[in-house]
């Protein structure tokens, strides 16, 4: 259980590493040292190549909607502020019946913790049967007025299971998406969230560092 009396920040982003898991068909993550102090160079410098949706990342509406806001249009305060972590019990998908119990409020930032977080213990293998939103649950969330959704695997939609439609439903509703979170260190509850993606001009998405701090009651 999370100690909610603690004021410490908890890192919920995954570590980017050479050869780590990525969405099938997206560019692989490669990190190559081109200068190295250990080899006698004057400094250490690395060359990074990866897709814009690698590891923990933010999806901009422009990812699926032509002419929609890009990652460089994101106002920082959208992903900074109070957030709620919700634990999902279904090991296959997030269903509407389970969502109805949580009474979402307009403007809320909601992070969904599922059994997916265990996958990050082996971050080299893609797991196609991850917990995801269905079209029905995405349509339900699109009507709630929440502002941010975070999930603990690489996509809000399933693998080859209406993933594009799920994205569009949420993004068209003005919901910003954080994907690839590792929520294993935290439990359900209220937190302060900071998530800052790289500011890529006209970007469809960008890797991000995300942290949570338990909300301490006065």
Automatic annotation (TrEMBL):
<dbReference type="Pfam" id="PF04199">
    <property type="entry name" value="Cyclase"/>
</dbReference>
<dbReference type="InterPro" id="IPR007325">
    <property type="entry name" value="KFase/CYL"/>
</dbReference>
<dbReference type="InterPro" id="IPR037175">
    <property type="entry name" value="KFase_sf"/>
</dbReference>
<dbReference type="GO" id="GO:0016787">
    <property type="term" value="F:hydrolase activity"/>
</dbReference>
<protein>
    <submittedName>
        <fullName>Cyclase family protein</fullName>
        <ecNumber>3.5.-.-</ecNumber>
    </submittedName>
</protein>
<keyword id="KW-0378">Hydrolase</keyword>
């Amino acid at each position: 259980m999370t100690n909610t009396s603690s004021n410490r920040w908890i890192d919920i982003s995954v570590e980017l590493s050479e050869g780590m898991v990525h969405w099938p068909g997206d560019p692989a993550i490669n990190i190559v040292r081109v200068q190295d102090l250990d080899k006698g160079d004057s400094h250490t410098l690395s060359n990074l190549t990866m897709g814009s949706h690698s590891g923990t990342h933010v999806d901009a509406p422009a990812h699926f909607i032509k002419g929609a806001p890009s990652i460089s249009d994101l106002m920082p305060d959208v992903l900074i502020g109070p957030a709620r972590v919700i634990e999902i019990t279904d090991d296959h998908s997030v269903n509407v019946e389970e969502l109805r119990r949580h009474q979402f409020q307009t403007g809320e930032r909601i992070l969904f913790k599922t059994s997916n977080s265990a996958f990050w213990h082996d971050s080299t293998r893609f797991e196609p049967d991850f917990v995801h939103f269905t079209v029905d649950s995405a349509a339900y969330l699109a009507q709630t007025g929440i502002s941010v959704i975070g999930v603990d695997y690489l996509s809000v939609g399933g693998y080859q299971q209406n993933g594009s439609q799920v994205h569009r439903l949420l993004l068209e509703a003005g919901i910003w998406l954080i994907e690839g979170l590792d929520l294993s260190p935290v439990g359900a509850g209220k937190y302060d969230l900071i998530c800052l993606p790289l500011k890529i001009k006209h970007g469809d998405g960008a890797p991000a560092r995300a942290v949570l701090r338990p909300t301490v009651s006065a």
